[in-house]
Amino acid sequence: MGVAKSDMAKQAAALRKLIAGEKIVVAPGVFSPAVAKLAEKLGFRALYFSGAGFSNLLALPDLGITTLTEVAGAARQVASKVNVPLIVDADTGFGEALNVARTVEEMRAAGAAAIHIEDQILPKRCGHLDGKELVGAEEMVKKLISAREAAGKELLIIARTDARSVEGIDSALERALVYSKAGADMIFPEALESREEFAEFRRKVKLPLIANMTEFGKTPYVTVQEFEDLGYDIVIFPVTAFRAMMNTVKETLTRLKAEGTQKGMLRSLMPREEFYDLIDYYRFEEADKKAMGAAKRLRRNST
C-alpha cells in the first residue's frame, strides 16, 4: 500500500518549514530503518538516505548500479518507521527526463520529503572522486523540469551539480543558477574545496543550499556551526554512521575470532533492552497477547 497524498505533502511541508527556520538542519546518513529510528530518537530533525551508504550496504560500489526499485523500496522501509522528513539520493534520476518523472512518483509513494538529482553521466562517481563526466546543462534542465512537474508540492527537488571538480567553480555556479530557473527547490553544490567557495555559492545563489560534509573527500572539514554562519540551510553527513558501523563490526569480529568469546565486549554492545525499546518490541508482544486472548474467547464462545 502506498503512502497517502496527505502524508506525502506533510513530509515535504515539514522539510520546507525546517529550511525556513533560523537553525541549520543536520541530516545524518541512515541506511536502515533501525539506524533511522535511532537518529530520530537522538533528536535529528531530518534524515538522509545516501546512495553511497545504500549501495555499500549491498557490497556494491557507488556507481549508479542500484535500481529505482531497490532504492525506492529501501527508502520506503526507512520513511515508514520515522516521523521526520527523509531526503533521498536519487543519483542521476535513474534515466532520462521521462524516467525522472517516474522516479519522482516512486519516491513520493515511498514517503520521501525530497530527492536530489545530479548532473553526471553513468556510470556516475562519488562526488569526491575523480573521473566524473557531466551531462550538458540543457539535459539536466530537462530532467529538472520533468521532476518539477511530477513533484507538485508533495516532494522537494534538489539539484546537485558536480561541475566544481570537472569544469571549475565558475561552471558550477553557472549551472546552479540555470538549475534554479528550471524549478529546483534547493541547490546542492558537490565537492567544493574551501570555505571561500561555499561562501561564494551563498552570495550568488538565492535558493536554499545543502552542503555535503563527507569524510576523506575534497571538502575540508567544516563544522555545522560554520555552515550555519555561511548561510547554508542543510548539511548532510552521508556515510559517517556507515563507516563507523563497518569499523566497529571489523573490530568486534576480529576480537571474537581471536578471543573466542564476546564476554569482554559486552560494554561496547547495545543492550537487548535498549534495542527493544528503540523498536517498540513490547508493543508488538502485547498486540500478540491481545490477539491470542481474543482468539481464545472466540473459541470458548463458539463451543
List keywords for this structure.
single chain, 303 residues, alpha/beta, TIM Barrel, 2 domains, 8-stranded parallel beta sheet, 13 helices, 51% helix, 12% strand, globular
Task: Walk me through what this model shows.
Helix content is 51%, strand content 12%. The chain is α/β, with parallel strands linked by helices. β7 (210-212), α10 and β8 (234-237) form a beta-alpha-beta unit. α4 runs parallel beside α5 (97-110).
CATH fold category name of the largest domain: TIM Barrel
Distance between the ends: 37 Å
- CATH class bucket of the largest domain: Alpha Beta
Which stretches are low in confidence, meaning pLDDT under 50 for 5 or more residues running? none
Order of helices and strands: HEHEHHEHEHEHHEHEHEHHH
Q: What structural category do the secondary elements indicate?
A: alpha/beta
**Second-tier CATH architecture of the largest domain:** Alpha-Beta Barrel
* Share of helical residues: 40-55%
The CATH homologous superfamily of the largest domain is termed Phosphoenolpyruvate-binding domains
Q: How many domains, in number, for the residues?
A: 2
